[in-house]
Amino acid sequence: MIRFDSVTKTYPGQSKPALDDLGVEILRGEFVFLVGASGSGKSSFLRLILKEEKPSKGSIHVLGQDLGTISTRKVPYFRRSLGVVFQDFRLLPNKTVYENVAFTLRVIGKSRGFIQSAVPETLKLVGLEGKEKRMPHELSGGEQQRVAIARAIVNKPQILLADEPTGNLDPVTSAGIMTLLERINAGGTTIIMATHEAGIVDQMQRRVIELSSGAIVRDQRDAGYDGQTVRDVEYEPVIDPATPMPDSEAAAAAAGATATVATAASGSAATTAATAAQTDAAPEPATITAAAPKVTPEVMRDAAPLYVEPEATDEVTDAAAEITAAATGQIQVDPEQLKPGEKPAEAASEHLTLAERLGLRAPGGPRRDDTDQEVGPTS
Ligand SMILES: Nc1ncnc2c1ncn2[C@@H]1O[C@H](COP(=O)(O)OP(=O)(O)OP(=O)(O)O)[C@@H](O)[C@H]1O
């Protein structure tokens, strides 16, 4: 599903690599936490999977495709198999909940009929039924993140990347979001989540990949936030980087197969992870120097109910809206930007269109008045 072979990423002007000779494989259906101190390379790892950045050395395969061979123009098509969720939600402030989710589908040319059935279905899945007409600023932080998740999964991506999705949320709301992500994963979507939240990682007990100074210092199944430095997930380095992925995913991807969020093959990450095989070359234990996590294991334990079905959790989340409102004091989102009628956050890039910023169109591709339609269904 995702494979890094000897991947090094050094940003221009930096002497030390952000990622240093990484080799790792993530299988279909896994739920993987990326942990490590600030600056250890988690976001860089996710950006490489998205092909937002290119490796300086090594090769990356995602869904059977060698990312090095995908042309810039084809990147938006490739990204349609991936959903992304960020810490700061990144909703369109002047569009309703419905429109925020529908927007992605419109840009990629889905039919009106498809949109009319997919959007309500997805909003129901994330527990936002009945809130279609709300504007983002009329929602709690947890609800805004649910909209962002709905937008990320509405096109039924095979992979969901989440970069600190609970970073701006209080513990109870975070628990609701994790319940939702767990449910999406149970539907077959591979999830990779970067987080500093020890309590969440300890509760979920999924595969944990720990980075330190750009290197993997731990890759452990059924693990917690802090652990012994081990590598118990099998990874065989590819001798010839040109060798394709050793599984049938290339064919599936080539055929345009997509996982169905609600119905795809079930099975937990644990069952799909490779057999335990601690390598002789396991690196020395690393000291975790991440900032003190906001959601400690104790807080998470007290934040029950945790892994109940989202239908039940919604009430809890709604009841926690006030807590969320208090927590938004720590959110770095400017409330002014969330007001309808204001200009959207143009600061991301004044040169890119909205679709380009969301990765749905190739930067510099055809604009609104072009007749050359670049967007369209992927399969
Ligand atoms: N665009 C960039 N240009 C130069 N250096 C960068 C860039 N992006 C990241 N870095 C550097 O690469 C290293 C890894 O950064 P990265 O954002 O991947 O870490 P992280 O683990 O996600 O950190 P955090 O937990 O704080 O988000 C850091 O030293 C960072 O300063």
Automatic annotation (TrEMBL):
Comp. bias (Basic and acidic residues): 336-349
Region described as Disordered: spans on this chain: 328-379
Record bears the keyword Membrane: yes
Topology within the bilayer: Peripheral membrane protein
Molecular-function GO term, any one: ATP hydrolysis activity
Compartmental location: Cell membrane
Chain ranges of the ABC transporter domain: 2-238
Record keywords: ATP-binding, Cell cycle, Cell division, Cell membrane, Membrane, Nucleotide-binding
Record-level GO BP terms: cell division
Origin superkingdom: Bacteria
Any one GO CC term of the record: plasma membrane
PROSITE patterns attached to this UniProt entry: ABC_TRANSPORTER_1, ABC_TRANSPORTER_2
Pfam families: ABC_tran
InterPro entries, sorted: AAA+_ATPase, ABC_transporter-like_ATP-bd, ABC_transporter-like_CS, ABC_transpr_LolD-like, Cell_div_FtsE, P-loop_NTPase
Record flagged with keyword Oxidoreductase: no
Sequence similarity: Belongs to the ABC transporter superfamily.
Oligomer and partners: Homodimer. Forms a membrane-associated complex with FtsX.
Record function comment: Part of the ABC transporter FtsEX involved in cellular division. Has ATPase activity.
Protein name: Cell division ATP-binding protein FtsE
Record organism: Agromyces agglutinans
Encoding gene per record: ftsE
